[in-house]
Fold NAD(P)-binding protein.
Amino acid sequence: MPSLTETRTYNRTFEFSSAPAPVVVVFGGTSGIGEAIVRLFATLTKGRVRIIIVGRNKERAEGIIASLPQPPEEDQSVQPDPDSNLPKTGYTFLPCDVTLMGNIHALFQTLTNDMGIARIDYLVLSAGVFGFGGREDTAEGLDVKLASRFYSRWKILEESVPLLEASRSMAQSTEAGRLRGAPGVLSVLGAGQFMGSVDYEDIGMKKGYKGWKAVVQSIAYNDLMVQAFAKRYPGISFTHAYPGAVDSGMLRFEGNLRVLNILTQFLLRPLIRVVMTSTTDCAEWMVYSLLSGSKEVDGVAGGMFRRNNRGEDIGMDAFPNVEEEEEKLFFEHCMDAVSVRGPREIGSS
Ligand SMILES: NC(=O)c1ccc[n+]([C@@H]2O[C@H](COP(=O)([O-])OP(=O)(O)OC[C@H]3O[C@@H](n4cnc5c(N)ncnc54)[C@H](OP(=O)(O)O)[C@@H]3O)[C@@H](O)[C@H]2O)c1
């Protein structure tokens, strides 16, 4: 298990190459772990990077962007991206409520058609809500919490594949790409924390929904997701990581529970600092997990990786029960569930 110091050194000596600058897309980059990952990428590359932050909170995103490092104006080391007419580097916020698959599809249309993004080198999936409440369906008929922690991630991957493949092709054909290695995807949730079993008779939990069960199933679904995509796209690295207990926006309470904010933010703060990881340290381990998956492992770049909160590869520890037929069933269910065909009747499959 790498120490924090080793992890920091690895991240700081990673060869990002700015010929052209890497393209990083962070879903959930407006707060918590995602925000810390945005800040770390901007620092590691000294601003020689294109980062796209996705979330709903425009004000927070603008505040974050205003505080990120800019590359020196006439930096000759940054080359223009051959596939786009965009400025060589920069930070952009794209608003999107990811619980609707149609929104994600529209976002990718904006990315590719309007912004001219032709490649993604690093994709971070950190948008998600915590909560044990009951089922609440979106206009597309998916549960909001499952949509935020899982279906949105599947949809994002489906939409991203051509852009990740473009990065893979660059990794195989250019010096800059070779230095960076395979493109990487990081899903921040709960690798290694799954308990119980996946109910393949009720994928998506339409028949038996319980808040705690939805949390646990989301973890298994993320495992099955990285496995499914890694099998189909071998030149890309797909990592599912557990961040541990992190002192982030997850500890903010809404509505009637707002009074708990006073308790957590003031009274429990000293204790929280001791028992929980800061978002800054967590980002070091998460980025380490993402980057190290992109480098050659036994001569092969890319593949499926599962990492714990200290960046350690946990192999198949606590991987969900799955047979070949179930893998197929799961894949077909997900492709159907995330397909955009206009608002569906709530509760229909
Ligand atoms: N913190 C922990 O201890 C911990 C432990 C295990 C797993 N995790 C998982 O790690 C991930 C990140 O957690 P965090 O602690 O960084 O949480 P956080 O501080 O609450 O940040 C969550 C991020 O998700 C975005 N988001 C939430 N709902 C969204 C929606 N419907 N559409 C678009 N963006 C949405 C938020 O952006 P906007 O507000 O701008 O929409 C925000 O940027 C989550 O999936 C969480 O379940 C966290």
